[in-house]
Amino acid sequence: MSRLFGSVRSRATLAATLVVAVALVAAGAAVLLSLRSNLMGQAGTQAEHTARSVATDLSVGKAPGQLDLDEGEEPVQVVDEDGTLLAVTQDLERISGTATDAVRRQTTKPAATGDRSDEDEDDHSDAADLLEPGDIDDKTTFTSGSVTVDHESADYRFAAVQVETEKAGTLTVYAGAPLSAEQGAVRTALTVMLVGFPLLLAVAAAVTWLVTRRALRPVEGIRGEMAAITASEDLARRVPVPDTHDEVARLARTTNETLAALESSVERQRRFVADASHELRSPIASLRTQLEVGAAHPELLDVAGAVEDTVRLQRLAADLLLLARLDAGERPTADARLDLAALAREEADGRTGVTVEAPEGVTVVGSRGQVGRLLTNLLDNAGRHARSAVRVTVRRAGDWAVVEVADDGDGVPEGDRERIFERFVRLDAARSRDDGGAGLGLAIARDVAVRHGGTLTVGDAPAGGAQFELRLPAIA
User: What is the secondary structure of 100-158 as a DSSP string?
Assistant: First the structure.
C-alpha cells in the first residue's frame, strides 16, 4: 500500500478524487435539501389553497355540516374554538398533525394532539379577536403529519386557516396535501446520486491518472536518463528536454546545466590531478637522482641543486594546497580590513626594478595571506617577463580598489590573455620550469580575486609590456 501511494501520480489521483468526492457530496446535499424544500413548499401551497377554499364556503354562511368533503387525497378537518370536530373528510381512518386526531364528528371536546404549539394557538386567538363575521385570517400555519385511508398511511403537509362565522364563531380549517411526490422525488434523486457519484469519481480518478501520467512522462524520462548517467558515469550525456515551457522543461534545462558544470568540474579535476602529478614528478625525480648520486659518490653531490629542487617542490605543494582550499569554497574572513597600499609596498620591498605608487587609505576586506599571495604572484610574473622595470600603482576608482602591475616586457598576445589564467598553462616564451614556474601563479591570483568579489584582467602596459589590473571592492 505504501508503495502504491508512494508515487506522485497516485497521490495526485487520490487527492483529486477526494476533492471531487467532497464537492459531489456537498452539491448532492444542497440539491436534495433544495428539492425537498421546494416540494414541501408546493405541498403547503396546495394544502393552503384547499383550506382557504373550504374557509370561503364557511365565510359565506355555509354550515360545517353542509360542506362537501368527499373522500379524496386532500383530507379536511373543521374544528371550533374548543377543538370540537365539526366536519371531516369521509372514510378517514386516522389523522395526525392537526389540532385533533378525531376522524368522526363529535359533540364533546377531544384532547388536543398534533404538532401545534401553545404559541401557535395564542397567535390564532389573537388574530381571531380581530376578525369580523365572514373574515378569513390572512395567516396560515403549516404542520406535518400523516393520514390513513383504506389501511394505507401516507405523510401529509397540513395548512390551518381561521375563519370567523356568524353562527359558529371562530372555526379553523385544516387541509392536507400528500408528500408522496416530494418523497418520491427525493428518493429518485438520492438513487441517482448513489449510482452516479461512484461513476463520476471513477471517471475523475481515471482522467487524473491519465493526465498525471502524461504530465509526468518527461519527469520519468529525466529520471531514467539520470539513472543511466549514474550507472555509466558518462557525464557527457544529457537528459531530454520536453518541447514545452513549463516547470518540467525548466527542470530538464537546469539538470543539463548542472551536468555540464559537473562535467567541467570533473574534467578540470582530472586535468589538475594529471598536471599536478606531472609537475611533481620532475622535481621529485631530479631530487632523487641527486640524492642517489650523492649516496654512491658523495663528492659529486650537488647540494645547491638539491636545495633548489626541494624549494621548488615545496612551493608547488603550497600552490596545490591553496588551489585545493579555493576549490573547496574557502572564503576570506569578512571582517579583516587590509590596507592595500601598505600590502603592495610590503610585497614589493626588496625586489629589483620595482617602483610603487600607492597612496594611503585604499582599504579592502579579505584574507591578508591570500591577497598577499595574489600580489606576490603578479610581481613574480612581472619580474620574469620585464626587461628592466616593474611599476605597481594602487588607486581608488569609485567603489573599487585598483592595483595595476605593469612591466616593460613583450606583453601578452591578445589571443592568450584568458588562457594564461588557466592552471598549468605556460606560454612558449616561459615554458622553462626554472624560469616560468609550474603555471599556477596567475590561476591562483585570479581565483583569489574572484573569491574576494573582484576581477583580474590583463592588457597592454604604457611601456609596451603587460599590465595586470586587479579590482577589489573598496571600503570607506
Answer: ----S--SSPPPP-SS--HHHHHHHHHHHTTPPTT-B-S--EEEEEEEEETTEEEEEEE
Question: What's the fold here for domain 247-327?
Answer: Helix Hairpins (1.10.287)
Alpha-carbon distance of 279 to 286, in angstroms, equals 12
Tell me whether domains 57-181 and 337-475 share a fold.
no
Rg of the chain, C-alpha, whole Å: 52
Give helix 247-296 / helix 303-327 axis angle, nearest 10°.
170
- CA dist 112 and 363 (Å) reads 104
- The answer to whether residues 371 and 452 touch, using CB atoms and an 8 Å cutoff, is yes
Q: Cα separation of 339 and 368, whole Å?
A: 9
What 60-63 contacts at long range (C-beta under 8 Å, 24+ apart), as own/partner pairs, is 60/134, 61/165, 61/166, 63/167, 63/168
Q: Is this structure's pTM higher than 0.85?
A: no
The CATH code that applies to domain 57-181 is 3.30.450
**Residues 59-96: tens digit of each pLDDT:** 888 888 778 777 556 899 899 888 888 888 888 889 89
What number of other Cβ atoms are within 10 A of residue 224's Cβ?
Answer: 12
Taking phi over 0 as left and psi of -120 to 50 as alpha, with beta for the rest, 97 belongs to: left
CATH code of 337-475, in short, is 3.30.565.10
Instruction: Kindly report the number of other CB atoms within 10 A of residue 459's CB atom.
Output: 14
Sketch the domain layout of the chain as residue ranges: 4-37+185-225, 57-181, 247-327, 337-475
Tell me the β-bridge partners of 473.
400
The CA distance from 36 to 184, in Å, is: 10
The rounded distance, in Å, linking the Cα atoms of 160 and 116 is 10
Q: What is the DSSP letter of 347?
A: H
Is the dihedral angle over the CA atoms 154, 159, 164, 165 positive or is it negative?
negative
- Per-residue model confidence as pLDDT tens digits over 227-273: 998 898 888 889 898 888 888 889 999 999 999 988 888 887 787 77
